[in-house]
Amino acid sequence: MAGFKFDPVRAERLLSSERERDLPPEVVLDLLSPALGDVVADVGAGPGFFALPLARRVGPQGRVLALDIAPAMLSLLADRAAAAGLGNVETRVCGESSLPLPSGECQGILLAFLVHELADPPSFAREVRRVLAVGARGLALDWPCAPSPGPPQEHRWAPERAAAWLREAGLEPGEPTVVGRWSCWALPFLRPV
């Protein structure tokens, strides 16, 4: 089944004060635990709702590699990063299952509201594993299966399904937690040694 894609024309909706209130980025980033100096990929970064706070977390000695399939989203993100004086954000157009990053480059990876958009989750998971350094951590975050705003119900995944394809790719998923007003799930994972 093809994933449900967010329309870039509605990008401003992803930056609303409502969204920030309902899902504070800092709460999500606490679950990922990026460190100063880390190189962290934000895949499906959109206009930078998480990428900009993430850039502040990793500091000027770190980098945020903001990837998206939509150039319009990345253009908006780049403008926002420049306006915020964040020179440690790099934007790159990616394919759905191909990330333009060297193997082992990232100490962290954020997959926020991306799982429901994937047409081939196993291929994507293998690519995530490839770009993560040994011992690196990741966080998948997506909509609950229960009725809520967001994509159509038939495109949503339970965290257990996401954990299964991460495990098949050689990653170690942890226990999911619930975050935000709409009870979104957050699933941490590691790339084992």
Description of the structure:
Helix 5 (121-131) packs across helix 6 (159-168). Helices cover 29% and strands 24% of the residues. The longest helix has 13 residues, at 71-83. The protein has helices at residues 17-22, 25-32, 51-58, 71-83, 121-131, 159-168, and strands at 39-43, 63-68, 89-93, 106-112, 132-142, 172-173, 177-179, 184-190. It has one domain (8-190): Vaccinia Virus protein VP39 (Rossmann fold), CATH 3.40.50. Strands 1, 2, 3, 4, 5, 6, 7 and 8 form an eight-stranded mixed beta sheet that branches. The mean pLDDT is 88.
Note the topology.
Layout: H1 17-22, H2 25-32, E1 39-43, H3 51-58, E2 63-68, H4 71-83, E3 89-93, E4 106-112, H5 121-131, E5 132-142, H6 159-168, E6 172-173, E7 177-179, E8 184-190
Parallel strand pairs: 1-2, 1-4, 2-3, 4-5
Antiparallel strand pairs: 5-8, 6-8, 7-8
Any descriptors?
single chain; about 190 residues; alpha/beta; Rossmann fold; 6 helices
N-C termini distance: 33 Å
Going by helix content, strand content and strand pairing, the class is: alpha/beta
Shape: globular
Radius of gyration: 15 Å
Order of helices and strands: HHEHEHEEHEHEEE
Q: Calculate the mean pLDDT score and round it.
A: 88
Q: What is the count of distinct domains?
A: 1
CATH homologous superfamily label: Vaccinia Virus protein VP39
CATH topology: Rossmann fold
Query: Which percent range describes the beta-strand content?
Result: 15-25%
Uncertain stretches: none
The CATH class assignment is Alpha Beta
Tell me about the biggest sheet? 8 strands, mixed
In the CATH hierarchy, the architecture is 3-Layer(aba) Sandwich
Q: What is the number of helices? A: 6
In helices, the fraction of residues equals: 25-40%
